[in-house]
Amino acid sequence: MTKIKDVIDFLESFAPPAYQEDYDNSGLLTGNAAAELSGVLVTLDLTEEVIEEAKSLGYNLIIAHHPIIFRGLKRLTGSNYVERTVIKAIKYDICLYAIHTNLDNVTNGVNFKIAEKLSLLNPKILAPKSGLLKKLISFVPVANKENVLSSLYKAGAGNIGNYSNCSFQLEGTGTFKANENASPFIGKANQPEFVKEARIEIIFPGHIQRQVVQALRASHPYEEPAFDILLLENENLETGSGVIGELQEAMDPEAFLKYLKERMNLSVIKFTQLLPGKIKKVAACGGAGNFLLKNAIQQKADIFITSDFKYHEYFDADGKIVIADIGHYESEVFTKELICELLNKNFTNIAVVLSKINTNPISYI
Question: Model-level pTM?
C-alpha cells in the first residue's frame, strides 16, 4: 500500500526542499500526506479545471511545478481563482504538492530536461550555487575507521560529482582522560590515554546534516565522539540555475531557431539580432531566466533560451549573444514529462497521469 508521503519523500530525495529559492513555496500545500494514494495527476499549474480532472479520475494527489499559494491566504471565500482552487482541493480531499525551484536547481531537473529535448552534449549547471556544502571532521580509532566511514557514506556523505565514498584520512595520536562518571571505550577512568586515531574529513550537502551526525554517533565507538562541521563556500556543481551544453554539430542561427521550434513544440519565438557565425554552445533556463544572461555571456554561449524578458532587457544581449524568449509555459511544459518519468521509474504500482488541461494563460494567433 503506497502512501502519499512515499511519493513526496521520493521527490524530495531527488529535489530537496532546501534547494528552493527564498521566495518559493514548494512542498505539500493541502491535504494529508499519511493517506493511502489512489493516483497521481501531474500538471504545470494548479487550476480549478485540474482539480476537477483529478476528481473525475479518482486521484487524490496532484503534483504541480508551480505552487498556487505563494503568499499567505488570509481568507478562503472563493473571491479569486487561487481561493477557489484551494477550496475545491480541500472539498474533494485532494493533496496539492508543488515541486518548483528545487526541481529547477538540481542536476537532471527542469533545465536538464530542456537540454535533453535539444540533445545537448555534456550539459552542466550554468550558475552553480555556493554555501550549500558542509564538511565533517572527526577522529576515530584506526580499527573502527572503515565502519564509521561506511555509515557516513550510507547517510549520503562523501559524494562529489560522479564519485562516491570520497574522504580524506590522516593518522595521528588522540589523547583523553575519562572521569569516574564515564564509560570509556578505551582505557580506564582517571588515566591519561593515547590512542592511534584517524582524522577523517568528508563533504556532504548541508540539508542532510542531521542524518550525517546521527550516522556518526551511531557508528562511532566513543561515548562522546569529537567532531567539527564547517560551512564551505565551494560551489556545488550539482546544484544551481540554468544549464549549458553543446550541440552535436554547429548550426546556422536560422536553422537552429527552426530546430528549437520543432523540438520544444513552439508556435512563436521572440529573439534578438542574429549574430555572425554558427550556434554551437547553448544556454537555457526554464521560466524567467533573465538573471542568468550574464552567466550565459561569461561562459560564451552563442544563444540563451529562456522566457519573460522585458523590452529593455533584450538590449542587454549587446551583440554578444542571441536571446531566444520562448514563453514561460513553453519553456517548462516538459517538466510534466520529467515528473512522470521519475515516478514511473521508481513506483511500478501506482497510477501516474499527465494532465490533459492546457494551463497556459497565453494564446497566440
Answer: 0.91
